[in-house]
Amino acid sequence: MLRPLIRSAAIALAFAGMVRAAEAGLRRYDRVEIAPTKTSIYVGTVSMTTPAFTRTGDVYESGYAAKVFPWFFESESGRLRVEISDEGLRRLERGERVEFSGRAVSSTGAERRVEGHATPEAPGAPQGKIKVRVFVSKRIELIFNTTYRFPDASASAK
Question: Rounded to two decimals, what is the model's pTM?
């Protein structure tokens, strides 16, 4: 009677340890840095910068600043959110391309749909390339190509 109880408790503890280890493995992806980027528009450019994104649940969030040259009065700032699931992070870790989507909301309340994909340099690499599409209107789409880096994953990969 006591042996099955002890065996069940040992299995439950082992399973709980595996779940905690899996969660700890993904914690190194809680922050991601996106390099500043620029794209061309008709007779001008749009430069975008973001502080590091932080992850809560399946959502990465950060602020953004988009500077439009030469039409500086069209520049804006706001918040940007994209969703990437735990499975998406595991796929990145395996070296696979991952699609994502989200929303940007400017400080004036204008909403923009965001889509893109991230492609790691290699399996297990903490950095790679990222393509982000920002749908400004039905006819205007800005495409930014840049790089990403998970700083916590870089430290644990050494």
Answer: 0.79
The 3-state DSSP class for residue 71 equals coil
User: In this predicted model, what pLDDT tens digit does every residue of 40-65 receive, in sequence order?
Assistant: 998 899 999 999 999 999 999 999 99
- Mean pLDDT, the chain, rounded, equals 86
Taking CA atoms, 63 is separated from 76, 104, 117, in Å, by 11, 9, 19
Inter-residue contact 26 to 19 (CB < 8 Å): no
List of long-range contacts for 153-156, beta carbons under 8 Å, 24+ apart? 153/28, 153/29, 153/126, 154/126, 154/127, 155/28, 156/28
Report the run of H or E that residue 151 belongs to, with start and end.
Answer: helix 151-157
| E strand or H helix that includes residue 40 | strand 37-41
Counting beta carbons within 10 angstroms of the beta carbon of residue 74, is it exposed (0 to 12), middle (13 to 18) or buried (19 or more)?
middle
Secondary structure element (H or E) that encloses residue 83, with its range: strand 76-83
Residues in the chain: 158
pLDDT tens-digit series, residues 103-144: 999 999 999 999 999 999 999 899 999 999 999 988 889 999
